[in-house]
């Protein structure tokens, strides 16, 4: 995303970036086939980079992304993601797993079996595992209303941990 933003807006000075610059960028991305949600995410990344850069360099950069959002939304250039209706078939999952090398195929299998997000999986510790109950403690599980303290025990079945790996 950052590379794409740099390609599309890199010739502009951050302090002089305008709403029209962002409208032009978003129109270009739409013509390339990007949907409203993808463009919205790119705009979000741009805003984050500008906030942190301004803070780090101790300079005041305009909140051009915040200023442009109402117009971009009205023009239909940005928007939320659509509801996901489709799920992969068994054949598609098998094909994907066959293309992956170890340990990635095991990680994908584990994610499917437990319905965990990538960030939840990589934060797991051996101390979070209860092999007798076949449960694992997911710390700070994502929740749209509650940002912290969302620890939740999740079943690992039908997944089987190979405890011989842990020494």
Describe this structure in words.
The chain is mainly α and 167 residues long. The protein contains 7 helices and 3 strands; from the N terminus they run H-H-H-H-H-H-H-E-E-E. It has helices at residues 2-9, 19-31, 36-57, 64-74, 90-99, 104-114, 118-122, and strands spanning 129-130, 135-138, 152-155. A 3-stranded antiparallel sheet has the order 1-2-3, with no helix packed on it. Strand 1 and strand 2 form a beta hairpin. Helix 5 runs antiparallel to helix 6. The longest helix is centred in the N-terminal third of the chain and has 22 residues, at 36-57. It is elongated. The two termini are 40 Å apart. The model is unreliable at 163-167 (pLDDT under 50).
Alpha-beta content class = mainly alpha
State the share of residues found in helices, binned by percent. 40-55%
Radius of gyration: 21 Å
Biggest sheet: strand arrangement:
1-2-3
Low-confidence stretches are: 163-167
> How much is the average pLDDT?
88
Number of helices: 7
Sketch the major β-sheet: 3 strands, antiparallel
End-to-end Cα distance, whole Å, is 40 Å
Range of strand content = 5-15%
Count of extended strands: 3
State the shape: elongated
Q: Give the ordered list of helices and strands.
A: HHHHHHHEEE
Brief summary of the model shown:
With about 170 residues, the protein is mainly α.
Topology summary:
Blueprint (H helix, E strand, L loop, with lengths): L1 H8 L9 H13 L4 H22 L6 H11 L15 H10 L4 H11 L3 H5 L6 E2 L4 E4 L13 E4 L12
Antiparallel strand pairs: 1-2, 2-3
Keywords:
7 helices; three-stranded antiparallel sheet; 48% helix; elongated; mainly alpha; disordered C terminus; 167 residues; single chain
